[in-house]
Design brief:
Layout lengths: L1 H7 L9 H5 L14 H24 L5 H7 L3 H32 L4 H16 L2 H9 L1 H4 L2 E4 L8 E4 H4 L2 H26 L3 H9 L4 H31 L12 H12 L2 H30 L54
Antiparallel strand pairs: 1-2
Helix pairs in contact: 4-14, 5-6, 5-10, 5-13, 6-10, 7-10, 10-12, 11-12, 12-14, 13-14
Main location: membrane
Keywords: Amino-acid transport, Cell membrane, Membrane, Transmembrane, Transmembrane helix, Transport
GO biological process, one term: amino acid transport
Length: about 350
């Protein structure tokens, strides 16, 4: 078809080269890179827009008060609030992960009662806003003023004031952990279901018990699926700690900077201070998530090495084209021209 177009255009048709008829490698194609001018224009526009925004924020918006930002960025009250924020994040996630694993196992249990209890838990804690749950936990000392221990329907042997037993920090941790456990349960369940059931059958055939099967066979493979969303949940938990003012717990980062802003009457720079520290901690968590994902994804998606032939192979000539002197099959006297039967080629078998 291309030769017909060439003749119609007045150009001589390209004659097939001899090396193409022989089956040799064709000449290298000179590739021309495809240009994307509009992509470059769009990138330049984005860079200019970002530069204009930064310049405007730095010199034309006095409400940002960058001197106030620098003054309170390393203030002792802010640094202390970062510590409380990290404690809320770590403690809540540890409890949520442990409880989430238990709920995931309950969801996969063949016992219908156990599965129903886990499903109701997920329904309640995933179906109501976390802020509403934190408000409820803050009202627990009002609803249950004392915790009485003793024999039912008799006088209490020990009575403990709820407010003394559960301070607002503990209530904030409980509220965050119970809400997050509902999401972690689904993440863990998805990871366990991603492992083929044949792995468990093989482990059972080798005589491994349930604990060793889960810890050495199933979980190491499921972690590749569990780690990425769990890392996202940790980062989300860090930011969700700003809602514990509903308990109320007022020593975490956002509420602390808001209290300072109510005194200095500078809310915008204090919001910038809080945002900077959230970004710093989130960036560190993202780096840790990256290395965890890479560790548990070892061997996944790796291409196997190309298998090399064990014996030397020769060229197969085209039918009807005589091989050149020195080429494999030139001395063969068969009637097939350049065609070399498989049993006559090196490595072709007997």
């Amino acid at each position: 078809m291309s030769d017909q177009h060439a003749e119609a255009a007045g150009r001589p048709a390209r004659q097939p080269q001899r090396n193409e008829l022989r089956g040799d490698e064709p000449e290298a194609i000179e590739a021309i890179r495809l240009r994307h001018p509009w992509r470059t224009v769009f990138a330049v526009v984005l860079v200019i827009a970002a530069g204009l925004f930064v310049y405007d924020a730095a010199f034309n918006r006095p409400v940002y008060s960058w001197d106030i930002v620098g003054q309170y960025l390393f203030d002792t009250r802010v640094i202390s609030a970062i510590g409380y924020t990290l404690q809320l994040t770590v403690y809540s996630m540890i409890i949520a992960i442990l409880l989430g694993v238990a709920l995931a196992v309950m969801r996969l249990s063949p016992n219908p009662v156990v599965g129903a209890v886990a499903w109701v838990y997920l329904w309640i804690f995933r179906g109501t806003p976390v802020y509403v749950q934190l408000v409820f936990w803050g009202m627990v000392p009002v609803i249950y003023k004392t915790i009485d221990l003793g024999i039912p329907f008799t006088e209490a042997m020990l009575s403990i004031t709820t407010k003394d037993l559960l301070p607002y920090f503990a209530l904030a941790v409980i509220g965050l952990a119970l809400n997050e456990a509902a999401y972690m349960a689904e993440i863990v369940r998805a990871g366990l279901l991603s492992v083929d059931t044949g792995q468990e059958e093989a482990a059972s055939a080798l005589g491994l018990g349930w604990w060793h099967t889960m810890s050495r066979v199933v979980l190491p493979q499921a972690m590749r699926v569990i780690i990425p969303p769990t890392g996202n949940e940790v980062i989300s938990m860090l930011k969700t700690t700003s809602l514990v003012t509903a308990v109320p717990f007022t020593l975490e980062l956002y509420t602390r900077t808001r209290d300072i802003a109510s005194v200095t009457y500078k809310p915008v720079p204090m919001l910038i201070v809080a945002s900077i520290w959230y970004l710093v901690v989130t960036s560190i968590l993202m780096v840790g998530q990256y290395y965890l994902e890479r560790y548990f994804a070892k061997g996944v998606g790796a291409r196997p090495d190309v298998q090399k032939p064990t014996v030397e192979t020769g060229l197969i000539g085209a039918v009807g084209v005589a091989p050149e002197p020195g080429q494999a099959g030139a001395a063969e006297g068969g009637g097939g021209g350049g065609f070399i039967p498989p049993h006559s080629r090196p490595g072709g078998g007997a």
